[in-house]
Amino acid sequence: MADAIRVCVAGYRGKVGAVLASAFQSEPGIEYVGGVARGDDLAAFLHDKRPQALVDFTKPNEAMHNALAAVAAGASPVVGTTGLSGADVDKLETACKAKKVGGIVAPNFAIGAVLMMHLADIAAPHFEAVEVIEMHHATKLDAPSGTALATARRLASRRKDRPFAHNQAEKETLAGTRGGEQGGVGVHSVRLPGFVADQEVIFGLPGQTLTIAHRTTSREAYVPGVLLAIRRVTAEPRFYRGLDELLGLRLD
């Protein structure tokens, strides 16, 4: 029987990190070696515990530091923190390749959310307009969510030289009512108690609409995707930009 994969969690006291830390402790093939939080001596922790993977659900200004420290220690970074810039992801990929370790940065580790975006990619060429509505808990720090922004950018890229139509009201009686816009894709953020992380992609043509929706009822939704990522990136020195790459979701 293969040895268990040694895993630690950065942000283990957070909403997602706490769920993951708990799940890892009872997961076959995973040895949870502990968590780190802001202010802890990360270098000493990595040297002492020697994890093979570091899972990060923190904040953008912490995540890069944590991930690069993990790579330097020979651990594969599994980053679910949103808000990293493209340059940050490039830097992390370069570090992983230099150290010959696998890694992943994903805007969403819920498998259903990734499939929602993939199905939206398929629909994009066939509709004239689309809007993304994302709904999260009231304490979420960023708006729109990383998933919504990634969805909008992907949809816009699918249209190439035929951008989506995004109509603005002639008279906006309440500023911001039409939300944001990314490449012709309307984006709206809802922040309310009771939500975890929901998203709808609504396409429109004359006389019809198509809605592709994903609902998250608890943060346990992220566990299967994170586990899949841990097992993959510790088995091969490859860097992934999103769970869809890892799942092999490609468009012709």
Tell me what you see in this structure.
This protein is of the alpha/beta class and 252 residues long. It folds into two domains: 5-109 and 219-247, NAD(P)-binding Rossmann-like Domain (Rossmann fold); 111-214, 2-Layer Sandwich (Dihydrodipicolinate Reductase, domain 2). It has helices at 15-24, 42-49, 60-72, 86-99, 111-123, 146-159, 223-233, 243-247, and strands at residues 5-10, 30-36, 53-56, 76-79, 103-105, 129-136, 180-182, 185-191, 197-205, 208-214, 239-241. The strands form two sheets. It has a six-stranded parallel beta sheet with strand order 2-1-3-4-5-11, sandwiched between helices. A five-stranded mixed beta sheet has the order 7-8-6-9-10, with helices on one face. The termini are far apart. The model has no long low-confidence stretch (mean pLDDT 94).
